[in-house]
Write a structure and sequence with these properties.
about 160 residues, mainly alpha, globular
Length: about 160
């Protein structure tokens, strides 16, 4: 079966009535949870990005507080799960400022985990990789914002060195 191109889908959607479009969107949201989450973000949270960031940061804090500490393997597995959650939220927003704010918050929690439990090379490499991703995302921001976030990044790097 051939999948229609985006332009073909766009043309077909323009021919639909409002009621038909609503039905299509609802059908999409019932099909996959991630579609429902994306639609909820677009409808309710995209207008106030600061509220969205604070909500996700609170969720990150909660998830880090509930990390299972039975073994390093399980700690790392839980942290990777949190990281996937953060990446999914970043994909919903698609704003570089949001991405950097959420990644820095994730890194701060990860540093606290590094300090609280045994120093673990996997978690350390995870932190280094996140800092590299933040640096790359910083290049897309205005210079003033870059400077502000660079200060926070410097603080993170000081913790990594210790």
């Amino acid at each position: 079966m051939r999948i229609a191109s985006l332009s073909e889908i766009k043309k077909e959607l323009k021919q639909k009535t409002d009621h038909e479009l609503t039905e299509l969107v609802l059908k999409l949201t019932k099909h996959k949870v991630e579609n429902k989450e994306l639609l909820a973000y677009m409808l309710f949270e995209s207008e106030d990005e600061n509220y969205f960031i604070s909500k996700i940061q609170s969720e990150i804090d909660l998830q880090f507080a509930n990390v299972n500490t039975k073994s390093n393997y399980i700690i790392n597995k839980n942290i990777r799960k949190i990281q996937r959650y953060v990446v999914k939220q970043i994909r919903f927003s698609k704003q570089k400022e949001t991405e950097i704010a959420l990644r820095i918050h994730f890194c701060k929690n990860l540093i606290a985990t590094l300090l609280k439990y045994d120093r673990n090379s996997t978690r350390h490499h995870m932190l280094i990789r996140q800092i590299e991703v933040i640096r790359k995302a910083l290049t897309h921001l205005h210079e003033d914002l870059q400077f502000d976030y660079e200060l926070e990044l410097t603080e993170l790097l000081e913790h990594v060195a210790h």
